[in-house]
Amino acid sequence: MVLRVGCHVSIAGGHDRAVGRAEDIGCNTFQIFTGNPRGWSAKDIDDKSAQNFISEVDRSKISPVVAHMPYLPNFATPRPEVYEKSCAVLLREIRRCGILKIPYLVTHLGSHLGDGREAGVKRTADAISEALDSEKNDVMILLENTSGTKNSIGGTFEDIGEILDAIGRNKRVGTCFDTCHAFAAGYDISTESGLIDTLSDYERLINLKNLKVIHLNDTKGECGRRLDRHEHIGLGKIGDFGIKRIVNHPKLSSLPFILETPVDERRGDKENVAHVRELFEG
Q1: Which of 234, 237, 280, 233 has the alpha carbon at shortest distance from 259?
Q2: Structure pTM?
């Protein structure tokens, strides 16, 4: 079995430049933002740029490519203006992924801002359903679990399962499992028994068949402390043994692992990707 591991790479200078950067790091899968991650607007993707990107991905044999939603959208918000803008960005990003032939679009689910979990779950499900109804391409939206901060949606598997149920278990909606977020939210995946229990809960509430991508991140925070602080692979609270169990687990090892780890004087992306490969037993 071939381990698929990569990281988030920059599209600076053109979307196609991301492919070469991923290759230099040693990736055989990677993640990008299709545009500015910190704004509401994005520059249009012209036909030439899209074709260059598609050609480079085909040449490299890297698969899959994953896109991530920008940071500002909040589908759970009770504020109408923010909700409408968030829905517009989601629809735009689905279309951009279609243009670039990117199969997966990962999204956070947002915060209900104190308006209540039930209302937040409903708004999130409505936003995703409306986007899928409006754009009939093959892009799959992946719901990412969060670290469980106050008022957030997605900190529990129950949240994500209820959203999937409300959408109708649509074949164009799957999930992305973030290891740092799960640990921060109280799922102790650092131990063998904790990983078994976590995957059992995931299967019961979400279904592992819906899991398409893993964000493989170690974490600076203790289990259940709600601290979303990523750490180098093996140097955080999940540790080498925890990460090793995850990448070698028979229900997970065939999935693409995307790293969102720090870049500092200790390690860069290339070193973290290489370290994951060292932990993989094949």
Answers
A1: 233
A2: 0.98
> Under DSSP, is residue 194 helix (H, G, I), strand (E, B) or coil?
helix
pLDDT at residue 282 is higher than 90: no
Residue 222 CA to residue 22 CA, distance in Å, equals 31
187 in Cβ contact with 216 (< 8 Å): no
Region 157-162: mean pLDDT is 98
- Per DSSP, the three-state class of 45 is coil
For 137-149, the pLDDT digits (tens) are: 999 999 999 999 9
- At residue 148's C-alpha, the angle toward residues 144 and 151, to 5°, is 105
Tell me the pLDDT tens digit for each residue of 211-240. Answer: 999 999 999 999 999 999 999 999 999 999
Paired tokens of 33: 């933002």
Per-residue pLDDT, 164 = 97
Q: What is the pLDDT of residues 182-195, one digit of tens each?
A: 999 999 999 999 99
**Residues with a known catalytic role:** 38, 68, 71, 108, 144, 178, 181, 215, 228, 230, 260
Q: 219 in helix, strand or coil?
A: strand
Q: Which amino acid is at 253?
A: S
| CATH for 5-279 (1.10.150.240, 3.20.20.150, 3.30.70.660, 3.40.50.300) | 3.20.20.150
Which amino acid makes up residue 201?
A: D
| Residue 9 in tokens | 């790479």
Angle in degrees, 0-180, between the axes of helices 239-248 and 192-205, rounded to the nearest 10: 40
**Element at 142 (helix H, strand E):** strand 140-144
d(CA 142, CA 154): 12
